[in-house]
Design a protein that fits this description.
This protein has 289 residues and is an alpha+beta fold. The protein folds into 3 domains: 47 residues, 2-Layer Sandwich (Uridine Diphospho-n-acetylenolpyruvylglucosamine Reductase, domain 2), CATH 3.30.43.10; 113 residues, Uridine Diphospho-n-acetylenolpyruvylglucosamine Reductase, domain 3 (2-Layer Sandwich), CATH 3.30.465.10; 108 residues, Enolase-like, domain 1. 34% of the residues lie in helices and 26% in strands. Helix 10 packs antiparallel against helix 11.
Length: 289
């Protein structure tokens, strides 16, 4: 299908983009990589009267490290994430996961900020952000505010981002020593959305887990922060009993929609299995085997 008519805007600054959003209110949509919005416009699921293209705003791109925190511009592409030496050194989970997002054409245009702001429970970055303890810098007519990932994803296609705001930066604490990580994703084919996936970041103090976070993809109305599952690991030596307890607690919060990828029971079971695999892989990375 062909989208409805719309007026196209190409601001050169964040301030200009915010002004356009404020001027046109709910009739306007931001265009980043376009891989989520444009298909919805073609299907008439989204019918903005004004399209605000932020691809000309260079300030929204780039990856830097400052005071132990990785700063990622919202318009940074998946390909740039994969190729970033800084991320490989300080947050290697992101480039590893980005390799399994869609295909090279999409990765060359698709942006991390667009993936996050879209609020799709099937997108990969929301669960990754939960596991990485990320925060999001939002800028609007009233200035800037910072929202933690744990408070950002509110429901299907629903986030804490207001209609007149722009997601400008993603802030992630740099991984410290003895940090393990993994993103295990069950998919029908390379580049597909996850049937179920689990992102795990944990820290070992000796053999004991001192910190853990687990995010789940596509098994609920939004990315799920599996806090009880992560808590089952903290303060313990991570053996098979601890892994099994964490997997069961992860499955307990799942509420996936039935579709061609599987029914509720199957997807929930796979969320548990992906969590088991991700925990094992994260531990193995710390121990170097």
């Amino acid at each position: 299908m062909i989208p409805n008519e719309f007026e196209y805007h190409a601001p050169s600054s964040v301030e200009e983009a915010i002004r356009l959003l404020a001027e046109h209110a709910e009739d306007a949509k931001l265009l980043a990589g376009g891989h989520s919005l444009l298909p919805m416009m073609k299907l008439r699921f989204a019918e903005p009267a004004h399209l605000v293209d932020i691809n000309n705003i260079d300030d929204l791109r780039g990856i830097q490290l400052a005071d132990g925190v990785v700063h990622i511009g919202a318009m940074t592409t998946e390909s740039a994430i994969i190729e970033s030496d800084l991320l490989h050194d300080h947050c290697p989970l992101l480039p590893e996961a980005a390799r399994n997002i869609s295909d090279p054409q999409v990765r060359n245009r698709g942006t991390i900020g667009g993936d996050i702001a879209h609020g799709d429970p099937a997108n990969d970055h929301p669960a990754l952000m939960l596991a990485c303890n990320a925060e999001f810098r939002l800028q609007g007519p009233n200035g800037e505010r910072t929202v933690p990932a744990t408070e950002f994803f509110l429901g299907t296609f629903w986030t804490a981002l207001e209609a007149e705001e722009v997601l400008t930066r993603i802030l992630i604490p740099a991984f410290g020593p003895r940090t393990g990580y993994a993103y295990c994703k069950l998919k029908r084919k390379q580049g597909d959305w996850a049937t179920a996936a689990s992102a795990v970041v944990l820290v070992l103090d000796g053999d004991t887990c001192s910190e853990a976070r687990i995010g789940l993809t596509n098994v609920g109305p939004t990315a799920l922060n599996a806090t009880d599952a992560a808590a089952a690991l903290v303060g313990r030596v991570i053996d098979e009993d601890a892994i099994e307890e964490a997997a069961k607690k992860a499955m307990a919060i799942c509420d996936p929609a039935e579709d061609l990828r599987g029914d509720t029971e199957y997807k929930t079971h796979m969320a548990g299995e992906m969590t088991r695999r991700a925990i094992r892989q994260a531990v193995q990375r710390v121990k170097g085997n």
